[in-house]
Design goal:
With 171 residues, this protein is α+β, with helices and mostly antiparallel strands. The protein contains 4 helices and 8 strands; from the N terminus they run H-H-H-E-E-E-E-E-H-E-E-E. A hairpin with a 2-residue loop joins strand 1 and strand 2.
């Protein structure tokens, strides 16, 4: 299908330089599970997170409604994620590092994609203290820089960078 061609193209682009095996598995898992889990809409089998349908996605991800408009999922003692629809805020585990607070609100659909990806990383056993959201970086002497959506570190060294995208022109 057209969806699978897009995924294969994106996967080949990401991994053509011999990317991380763990990320390959995670990437494939995310997209294959999305097809099965989120009441896939007819638009090419791709699910677009928006504020309007994010509650349904949270329920599919097994988040519990703990009060009016607040959904939470516990992973371990004192490790949880939360979405508050009244405050329009996303809450991450305490030890997870965040470079810019803009990732913690409902202002961009990409924030929901990052939230879901962090959820999957925690499910797979990654520790919050090894995850850094919106990490700024600089490349070379020409002052090229950017911000990575998700960086995973081990012993203070980044070994995995995940760039999250939403459906549309960006994808």
């Amino acid at each position: 299908s057209d969806f699978h061609k897009k995924i294969t193209s994106a996967r080949n682009f990401i991994f053509r330089s011999g990317g991380c095996q763990i990320f390959r598995k995670l990437f494939i898992t995310i997209f294959s599970e999305k097809l099965l889990c989120y009441n896939t809409p007819p638009k090419g089998g791709i699910f677009l997170f928006t504020e309007k349908n994010f509650k349904n996605a949270l329920e599919v991800m097994k988040f519990e409604k703990i009060s009016d408009g607040v959904y939470q999922k516990n992973f371990a003692e004192n490790i949880f994620m939360q979405a508050d629809f009244k405050q329009k805020k996303l809450f991450y585990p305490k030890n997870l590092k965040i470079g810019r607070d803009t990732i913690k609100n409902f202002s961009q659909n990409e924030n929901f994609v990052v939230f879901e990806c962090v959820h999957r990383l925690l499910q797979k056993g990654y520790k919050p203290e090894d995850i850094f959201l919106e990490k700024a970086w600089q490349l070379g002497h020409n002052q090229k820089s950017g911000i990575a959506d998700i960086c995973i570190s081990k012993n203070e060294k980044v070994f995995l960078i995940i760039e999250c995208k939403t459906l549309g022109a960006e994808f």
